[in-house]
Amino acid sequence: MKKILVLSFLATSLMFANNAEQLVKDNCSACHMLSKPTQAQKGSMKAPPMMGVMFHLKETLKDEQKVKTFLVDYVQNPSKEKAICMPRKIQRFGLMPSLKGVLTEAQLTEVADYLYKNFPPKGFTHNKKGKAKNSPFLITGKMPHLTKMVKKNWDNPTLALTQAQKEKLIQVRKATMISVTKLKKEILPLEKEIAKATMSGETPANLKAKVDKLSSLKAAATMTHIQCIHDTKNILNDEQLTFLLSKQKKMRQAKSKL
Ligand code: HEC
Q: Which range of residues forms the domain containing residue 102?
C-alpha cells in the first residue's frame, strides 16, 4: 500500500512537471524562445527569450513569491505600466496579448513554478559583458551612446519625443541593427578563424588577406555606427540633444565614482 502511495505520488509530481513544461511549450514558446537565440534567430523573434525575461524578473523582484505572483498576473493582464524588464521591448514587439481564459489560474501557478525553477538555465550570462568583448566596431567607448540614451529616456516628458520623431528613431535603429547584425555575422567567425589559424602555426603572410578583410568589415560597422549617430542627431532638436548628452555625462561620472 505504502509503495503504491509513493509511486502514485512520484507519478503525479512527474506528471505535474511534464505538464507545466508542456503548458509552456504549448502556450508561450510560439513567442518566447525557450533556448538561447542564435544571431540569425534574433531578427525574427516575436518576444524576448524566456531566459532573459526570467533573469530580469528575478533581478528586479528578488523574492520568489513576488516573481510568481507577477507572472500569473502579467500573463492574464499585461500592460505597459506593469512591464518590468527591457523598457524598449514593448516598442519592439508590441504588448503581449492577454492569455486570460486560455490557461486557468491553477495552470498558471504551475507554469510560474516551472519557469522559476528552470529559467534562466544554469550558466546563463547576461550579454552585457559579452557585448564589449564581441564589439564589431573600431572605436569603442569614445563616441556618445545616443541610441542608448534615447532608449532610456523614450517616454521621459523632459525629452518630449514626438510621435513622428519616435517613428523616425525606430527606423534608424532598425536600419542600424540590420546592417550591424549582418556585419557581425561575418566579423565574429572571421576573428575566431584568424585566432585559431595563428595558434595552429599559420604564417602571418598567409593571414594577411583575412586580416585585411576583417579590417574592412570593422570599418563598415564603424561607419554604420557613425551614420546612426548622425541620423539620430538630425532627428533630435538642440535642446533634446543637450539634454541627452548631459544625462550621459552624469551617468558616466556616476560610474567612474564607483
Ligand atoms: C503571442 C505572443 C506571446 C505569447 C503566446 C506569450 N507572450 Fe509573453 N510576451 C510577449 C511579448 C511581445 C512581450 C513583450 C512585451 C510585454 O512585456 O508585454 C511579452 C512579455 C512577457 C513577460 C515580461 C513582462 C515584463 O515584466 O516586462 C512575461 C513575464 C511573459 N511575457 C510571460 C509569458 C508566459 C509565461 C507565456 C505563456 C504562458 C507568454 N508570455 C506567452 C508575447 C507573448
A: 13-126
Q: What is the pLDDT of residues 150-169, one digit of tens each?
A: 988 999 999 999 999 999 99
Q: Cell numbers of 226, please?
A: 557613425
Which residue has its alpha carbon closest to ligand 1 atom 40?
28
Per-residue pLDDT averaged across 59-79, rounded? Answer: 94
Domain boundary among 126, 159, 190: 126
C-beta 45 within 6 A of ligand 1: no
Q: Are residues 239 and 173 in the same domain?
A: yes
Q: Do 18 and 81 fall within a single domain?
A: yes
pTM: 0.56
Going by CA atoms, what residue is nearest to atom 19 of ligand 1? 96
| Of 79, 101, 90, 6, nearest in space to 46 by CA | 90
**Ligand 1 neighbourhood includes 221 CB (under 6 angstroms):** no
